[in-house]
Design brief:
Znf_DskA_TraR; alpha+beta; 60s Ribosomal Protein L30, Chain: A; metal-binding; Wheat Germ Agglutinin (Isolectin 2), domain 1; five-stranded mixed β-sheet; 201 residues; globular; zinc-finger; zinc ion binding; 40% helix
Length: 201
């Protein structure tokens, strides 16, 4: 079934992100899946994103999950995977299926490398643009179950954020959340100051 997110909401996602692309389409469809399975956006909806790619912007826009509210959790795992929960209840994890890309990466990736390196010809840049648009359209028209491997989860979502004391770094004098401090030779340090003196890195 084609994407059920309204054109107005899709336009808002594009404006927020700054451009349209296949990655944004993945996030739009992941958010659509979350809203379909768990109901409308609200403060008790939690998203865990295992990537920092474009689609996270669409997830923020459509689910109202944000880092600042503590209901969007970023885990730097480099996976096109998204977990959604209602606080206090079960949820699901959706992983982009490799076959959903329809083999287009075989042509796109070399072209992207050439474009980034400045070696792509005008014809190759146009081919890359056409492939990206084709992939984007494909994602927006695909059945969600064909696009994602979906696993129901019985585990609870991440805990809500805690209000913690701020401590002063003994080196730079800046205040830092207690849970992000390190102890070194009897001193309280922020992470950058700790990394500057710790030898086992």
């Amino acid at each position: 079934m084609p994407c059920m997110i309204s054109p107005e909401q899709i336009s808002a996602c594009i404006a927020f992100h700054g451009h349209e692309c296949p990655g944004l389409a993945i996030g739009i469809r992941a958010a659509e899946l979350a809203l379909r399975e768990l109901g409308p956006a609200g403060p008790d909806l939690v998203a865990v994103c295992e990537t920092d790619m474009c689609g996270v912007d669409a997830i923020m826009m459509l689910t109202n999950c944000t880092v600042g509210k503590g209901n969007l959790v970023f885990r730097d795992l480099g996976k096109m995977a998204f977990t959604f929960h209602r606080r206090g209840g079960p949820g699901f994890r959706a992983v982009l299926r490799p076959q959903s890309r329809r083999g287009m990466d075989e042509h796109m990736v070399p072209l992207m490398r050439k474009d980034i390196d400045g070696r792509a010809t005008d014809a190759e840049r146009q081919e890359l643009l056409d492939l990206r648009k084709q992939m984007q359209r494909s994602f927006m028209a695909m059945e969600l179950e064909d696009m994602f491997d979906i696993t129901k989860l019985e585990s609870l979502p991440p805990r809500p954020p805690s209000i913690l004391e701020s401590l002063v770094c003994d080196t730079c004098g800046e205040r830092v959340m207690e849970s992000r401090t390190r102890r070194f030779q009897g001193r309280t340090l922020c992470i950058p100051c700790f990394e500057a003196v710790e030898q086992k890195r």
